[in-house]
Specification:
The protein is mainly alpha-helical. The chain is built from three helices and no strands. The chain starts with a helix and ends in a 42-residue tail after the last helix.
Length: 96
Amino acid sequence: MVEGIVWRFRTGSPWRDLPAEFGPWQTAWKRHRRFSGDGTWDRIYAEILADADSAGQIDWALSVDSTINRAHQHATNLPRSTGGLVELQESEPGTV
């Protein structure tokens, strides 16, 4: 069951595409959801991390990147209201 959950996240596949050798996809999904909700995955991760740290297998060096990527103002998908009237984008005949 854990192998099936790991396979699903490693491949990025939908739960319904879980291979039959891992059992019913519904079972893996329900177990993953329950483990996520009750903190089981957090406890497993903490235990693995503690074991690796005590064995000296973790390098605690830290690198922080302060790069800022700004999006163009029109890159958003939200409507923008300026509070004004909608302007026509066509010029009137005789004006340039």
